[in-house]
Amino acid sequence: MLKPVIILGAGGHAKVIADIIIKSGGQVAGFLDDHIAAGTQILDFPILGRIFDLEQYCEAYSFVIGIGSNEVRKKIDSNYKVSWYTAVHPTASIALGAKIGEGTVIMANAVINSSAVVGRHCIINSGAIVEHDCTVLDYVHLSPNTAIGGMVQIGEGTHIGIGATVMNDINICGDCVVGVGAVIIRDITEQGTYVGIPVHKLGG
Q1: Which of 33, 42, 145, 186 is 20 to 30 A from 202 via CA?
Q2: In degrees to the nearest 10, what's the CA dihedral of 201, 118, 103, 142?
Q3: What is the model's pTM?
């Protein structure tokens, strides 16, 4: 029997995750949040305490990080060894041979195609497409309606903005930010913020 799930964070992203859990047949026990008072109701679920309180719940519950910051998700994952819940919306398409890491959230109408690998604690947001044979490393966020062509590798902690497009066979290094609507047609090998069609590095 699956454990009830506690969501870390209680903002907009966390509320979307709560909806995914319920629609996929899971049970939400509540939220842990450092900025909202215990006892407050969010979507009729209680704030149970602060994030560091999770250790008192770890035996009976699973957890998912409902925080959009890639850096914060990595820090929480590094600090706490608990049972992580992987949230997949029932309208998402996960192809044969695709692999999804624990703690990752895959939102409505996202597509993960054949033999793609998505790491731990990633966000594959609404309508995002990860094509065949891609590798998306840990703590990546693919924003709504991003399109990632086949055989792309995206490094740890990178954030791809809303509606961005990545051509086939591209490598993107870790800890980058790619802007809204950007088009990537060549490898990105240096950390930084990239915008435009095709992309260029800000300040570069």
Answers
A1: 145
A2: 40
A3: 0.96
